[in-house]
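Re: weekly structure request thread

Next one in the queue (141 aa):
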Amino acid sequence: MPATPAMPDTSPARQPLSVVGRVFAVVAVVEAFTWAGLLVGMFLKYVTESTEAGVWLFGRLHGAAFVAYVVITLVAAVRLRWGWFRTLVALAAAVPPLTTLLAERWLRRTGHLGTPVTASEPDVEPDVEPDVEPREPTTVS
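Done, posted below.
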């Protein structure tokens, strides 16, 4: 039985990420990691009352990561042409712990971290040129 050629996967999840999309993904992971570190630091400070070093370190790191996430989200929203709903969801994801990971996964799966298609680029090129009958030249006497 002959092997059939594999069709390329053109689903939105397999679309290559744009540069802004890659930066957004990295910053979303960093923001979630610093949130987790801050939560561990708060546990050590307030529950075990053993040290304040975790809150001191991860508080600063998370503050910087949060600001970076908000900035890159706004940049991505403009450059990747997100709508207002997508932008608000991505911004709101910075508030609950670890939710930026969910937002990044959602945006990646739906293809919104890839390069947007512009209106000048047609989605599908026609296979056949339109039927146009050639005109006979007319002569003016």
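Residues 15-109 form one domain. The chain has a mean pLDDT of 85.
Next request, please.
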